[in-house]
Inverse folding.
């Protein structure tokens, strides 16, 4: 695939290498976006876990501090 294009006068190898580099860069960007999405999902999961923990402990505290209906 070496040689020069008669129309553009550009070297085939050089153009091919540049196109491959652009494709690699696009793939790296897609991978970075997938990683950001995975991180956002992990953060959402941590937030859900935190809410569950706070919800269950809040329920426990609420019962803990209520006066006893028999004693009062």
């Amino acid at each position: 695939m070496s040689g020069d294009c008669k129309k553009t006068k550009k070297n085939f190898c050089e153009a091919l290498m540049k196109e491959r580099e652009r494709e690699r860069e696009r793939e790296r960007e897609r991978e970075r976006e997938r990683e950001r999405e995975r991180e956002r999902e992990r953060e959402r999961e941590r937030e859900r876990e935190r809410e569950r923990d706070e919800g269950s402990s809040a329920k426990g505290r609420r019962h803990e501090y209520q006066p006893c209906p028999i004693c009062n």
